[in-house]
Amino acid sequence: MIKGVIFDLDGVIVFTDQFHFKAWKQMASELGFCLDEEVNHRLRGVSRMESLDIVLEGYKGASLSQKKKEALADKKNNIYREFLAAMTPDDVTDQVRETLAELHRRGYRIALGSSSKNARFILEKVALAEVFDAVSDGTNITKSKPDPEVFLKAAEYLGLCPKECIVVEDAYAGIDAAKAGNMLAAGIGKAGEYDKADYCIKKFEDLLDFLK
Question: How sure is the predictor about 18, in pLDDT bands with cuts at 50, 70 and 90?
Fold first, then answer.
């Protein structure tokens, strides 16, 4: 029996992909190369340093030291946080808020499972920090999706077994992580087309149709 619902953040609860992409583009431009949307799709659900490695595939300059890479990742994150600082509660739809509230009314525990180290900051900006019973994010994991660590931690924080949880994800890597963690997976957006997803959600509120 499902007792907990674990949500990815970007692309599910909020949509900050454009902020990530703008920040990576600005950093890439300063290094003398451009990014396209195809690269942006590959960045979904992966860690900051792994994202940097993907972005740097377009870099034609001299080899970068690990220290320089870490400095670039920090610089990108600072640019990204400037964009995030402008977020407000209006960046979360009524459909999302009402669905989360209804899940609580039905007795489900809900958690966030995100690779982002900015997850708690974002939740504060959009007034959702008090809504989630637990948060597992980039600050408490060592492995990024498709490794299931972030979701397994979320289940642990909820006090539930993995098999008692369903994960809601918009990225293939997130679906893979959920299945690797022995959880059900509901795909939304692009991940709704993934054959490994147990459920396909067209709209966020569709969750309520099978979580009675």
Answer: confident
The model's confidence at residue 37, banded by pLDDT at 50, 70 and 90, is confident
What's the Cα-to-Cα distance from 138 to each of 5, 16, 46, 129, 182, rounded to whole Å? 19, 16, 10, 16, 21
Region of residue 37 (left: phi > 0; alpha: psi -120 to 50; beta: else): alpha
pLDDT tier for residue 144 given thresholds of 50, 70 and 90: confident
| Per-residue tokens: 140 | 């408490």
13, 96 in Cβ contact below 8 A? Answer: yes
Q: Which residues are catalytic?
A: 8, 10
Tell if the pTM clears 0.70, that is, is over it: yes
- d(CA 79, CA 176) in angstroms, rounded, equals 30
Torsion angle of C-alpha atoms 187, 161, 44, 99, degrees rounded to 10: 50
Q: Give, as one character, the DSSP assignment of residue 33.
A: -
